[in-house]
Write a structure and sequence with these properties.
Order of helices and strands: HH
Low-confidence stretches: none
Largest sheet: none
Structural class: mainly alpha
Shape: rod-shaped
Number of strands: 0
Distance between the termini: 50 Å
């Protein structure tokens, strides 16, 4: 576990890759949420 934490947050490249991964997940979640909201039938 300590190896992975050092690999992810110990150097700038690992931190940048974590930022990219989490921001990508956020964008995908937002697009999925917008698709669900726009696809809902109008009341």
């Amino acid at each position: 576990m300590a190896f992975w934490l050092d690999l992810m947050f110990g150097n700038p490249i690992g931190l940048l890759s974590m930022i990219v991964i989490f921001s990508t997940l956020g964008i995908i979640s937002y697009l999925t949420w917008m698709f669900i909201v726009k696809s809902a039938p109008v009341k």
